[in-house]
Design a protein that fits this description.
Order of helices and strands: HHHHHH
Distance between the termini: 45 Å
Strand content: under 5%
Number of helices: 6
Number of strands: 0
Helix content: 55-70%
Largest sheet: none
């Protein structure tokens, strides 16, 4: 049995509604992070990897970075996480795909995404995660 979105035993209106809910959740998260400064309020979750080990994962600093980015402070956003342009493309692509699915019944085609590109992205994440935790200059610049 093929379990693609087109073959799931769910009505088209239900999947469009779920896509609209997902897009709404992303937009609410954007508004929340844009409004509340994560460096001043302390109700944002702490990275579990950092809390347990003291090592920054490849996603550490994204909340603070997105807050800075939403306020037009690109250098600060890049200071918190230098991969924020890549994450911005991923989140924006997800939002656009969900909105398109909610409106027209099909989102962006991600079937054409190369497995090689995904492997490169995973290697970049792993390399970045290791490099940002090396306690020597210039790698300390990567630590959030």
């Amino acid at each position: 049995m093929d379990l693609t979105l087109e073959n799931l035993p769910v009505s088209e209106s239900t999947t469009r509604l779920v896509a609209a809910g997902g897009a709404s959740a992303i937009l609410a998260g954007v508004g929340f992070v844009a409004y509340f400064d994560p460096t001043r309020v302390h109700f944002f979750p702490v990275c579990p990897i950092y809390a347990l080990t003291g090592f920054a994962c490849p996603g550490c600093g994204l909340t603070r970075g997105f807050h800075a980015l939403f306020h037009g402070d690109i250098p600060t956003a890049l200071h918190f996480n230098v991969l924020i342009p890549i994450w911005t493309l991923i989140f924006a692509g997800s939002l656009v795909s969900l909105l398109l699915y909610a409106v027209r019944g099909r989102g962006l085609s991600i079937n054409k995404l190369s497995p090689h590109l995904l492997w490169v992205f995973m290697i970049v994440l792993l390399t970045f995660g290791v490099l940002r935790n090396i306690p020597a200059y210039p790698f300390t610049l990567l630590f959030p």
